[in-house]
Amino acid sequence: MIVQPKIRGFICTTAHPVGCAKHVEEQIEYVHKSGAFNGPKNVLVIGSSTGYGLASRIAAAFGGGANTIGVCFEKSASDNRTGTAGWYNTAAFEKAAAVSGYFAKTVNGDAFSDEIKAQVIDLIKAHMGKIDLVVYSLASPRRTHPKTGETNSSVIKPIGEEFTSKTVDVHSGKVTQITVPPANDEEIRQTVAVMGGEDWQMWIEALDTAGVLADHATTIAYSYIGPELTYPIYREGTIGRAKSDLEDTALRLNKKLQARGGRAFISVNKALVTQSSSAIPVVPLYISILYRVMKEKGLHEGCIEQMYRLFSEQLYSVNGPSIDEKGRIRIDDLEMRPDVQDEALSLWEKVDTENLAKLTDIEGYRTEFLRLFGFAFKGVDYDQDVDTQVGWV
């Protein structure tokens, strides 16, 4: 099959197996060049196939020499459809891990379910014994509660009052005003149920009850704060309410795990082009500006740079992690530097459709978006017929 990008809204419905493998290969090369660190040896990544979760798995394996188990929900190719990007990413990761002698298995299914938790626990017992690090990096629009059977859906809305701001159609380059109505109480509740900390806590409790969580285990989940201009739609909106619940969960888990030499953290990460961030109004325009500013200052990082720094300079550094007043690790420190934010805000005030290409890195955003699905990689012939039926090790 000759695979080309087919974009619908903020997603691409095709993925290129060779390009996705190239993406994984580039991240592995970055870790190899950056050097090894003394990290965890048995790692579970929940949400392991794309973005920060995939980068966490790569950093742990190829930087720290870890054996890994991943959990994701991806689809293989059919006769007339490609597999998902996460499917191809996982295939490439497992192949590379096997070549390097690292154990790597992936469980494909609903991470919210008791069934998948049980499958993972069986794998840990059979191949690892106990887990040293649990990374929770799930991004899902829906969750079916494993106990009640209720299915909840998340929304991206402000809380309290409607929000009006600039946004951009990334593909057309048109900058417009968007108004988003406020969420009602039920929408807030459901968003917290999907994206908050309950499932993370369920995972830790299930692992602990099964006796597969090491006494000194670390667990970490990822969050975002961002600039004030995005607060109404993010930090002070429904997603922010869910992230606050996630952060409260980290404090509870940390208190519980500390009694046995363990710890729990939130890492506040940088804004990046991901499948999730592409769906949030306002955020793609902000990221396009941020990319320009940070690239000009030599500060830009992608997922793998962020996760390598988190693991090697924070979680597993000699002195341990630096945390803020709420106990969070701040890997967004470069994004939130005053000089970066001042310049980004100045450009935000000026940007419109006519000057978008001049004032922002909209082309960089578009390229990063395509790379999520295995496109726009140098050295990959996208006119060549490729085998889309790629299996996992």
Describe this structure in words.
The protein has a domain at 7-140 and 189-282 and 299-335: 3-Layer(aba) Sandwich (Rossmann fold), CATH 3.40.50.720. α8 crosses α12. The protein is of the alpha/beta class and 393 residues long. The two termini are 22 Å apart. Helices cover 41% and strands 17% of the residues.
Compile the SSE list and pairings:
Blueprint: E1 7-8, E2 11-12, H1 17-34, E3 42-46, H2 51-64, E4 67-72, H3 85-100, E5 104-108, H4 114-127, E6 131-136, E7 142-144, E8 151-153, E9 163-169, E10 174-180, H5 185-195, H6 198-209, E11 213-223, H7 238-258, E12 263-268, H8 283-296, H9 303-315, E13 329-330, H10 338-350, H11 356-359, H12 362-371
Parallel strand pairs: 3-4, 3-6, 4-5, 6-11, 11-12, 12-13
Antiparallel strand pairs: 1-2, 7-8, 9-10
Task: Supply the key terms.
single chain, 393 residues, alpha/beta, seven-stranded parallel sheet, two-stranded antiparallel sheet, 12 helices, globular
Can you summarize this structure?
This protein has 393 residues and is an alpha/beta fold.
* Succession of helices and strands: EEHEHEHEHEEEEEHHEHEHHEHHH
CATH topology annotation of the domain at 7-140 and 189-282 and 299-335: Rossmann fold
Structure summary, number of beta strands:
13
* Overall residue-averaged pLDDT value: 96
Q: How much β-strand is present in the residues?
A: 15-25%
DSSP summary: helix tally: 12
List unreliable stretches of 5+ residues.
Answer: none
Strand order of the largest sheet: 5-4-3-6-11-12-13
- Shape category: globular
What's the level 1 CATH class of the domain at 7-140 and 189-282 and 299-335?
A: Alpha Beta
Helix percentage range:
40-55%
Radius of gyration: 20 Å
CATH architecture descriptor of the domain at 7-140 and 189-282 and 299-335: 3-Layer(aba) Sandwich
Could you tell me how far the N terminus lies from the C terminus, measured between alpha carbons in angstroms? 22 Å
Structural class: alpha/beta
